[in-house]
Amino acid sequence: MITRLSSLYEIPIIDLNTGTQLAEIKDFILDIKNEKLIGFITRNDLFLSFNNTKNLGRDFLSLDCEFSQEIFIDMPQYNHENLLLYPRDILKRPVITEEGKVLGIINDICLDVFSGSIESYEISDGLFKDILKGRAKIFLNQVTSYGNGVIVIKEKDALS
């Protein structure tokens, strides 16, 4: 199931063994180089690896482990050189072609909730065009570089 990352903010993290809410999702860490969701940052700034989750749905994230409190760790440092980013590092960035044509801005990140794979970026070209044509998507294999404040794609991959 593909979902927008923006729909997952503030959903509760539930221990399936006890039915207890352990935390809420505050943010995410993404590995852009490997196109994956690495994990979740909780409201109390702890980190939960995506690999330690049982199920990620639109209403809650579930854990199925006997010692679920022990899987939350201090938040790791992220590094732009390794392309480990928070979504806020990508959202609202302009998308341009190598020739300099501005296609719009990154409005959301589409994620496969079963595998944690980043499927695409949702591009907005303004409210009026979004209403008339809908939002376009670019896939990560179309991105040639993550520049200083912009995302660059090849002209042949430009949105029509």
Automatic annotation (TrEMBL):
<feature type="domain" description="PRC-barrel">
    <location>
        <begin position="86"/>
        <end position="153"/>
    </location>
</feature>
<protein>
    <submittedName>
        <fullName>Uncharacterized protein YrrD, contains PRC-barrel domain</fullName>
    </submittedName>
</protein>
<dbReference type="InterPro" id="IPR011033">
    <property type="entry name" value="PRC_barrel-like_sf"/>
</dbReference>
<dbReference type="InterPro" id="IPR027275">
    <property type="entry name" value="PRC-brl_dom"/>
</dbReference>
<dbReference type="Pfam" id="PF05239">
    <property type="entry name" value="PRC"/>
</dbReference>
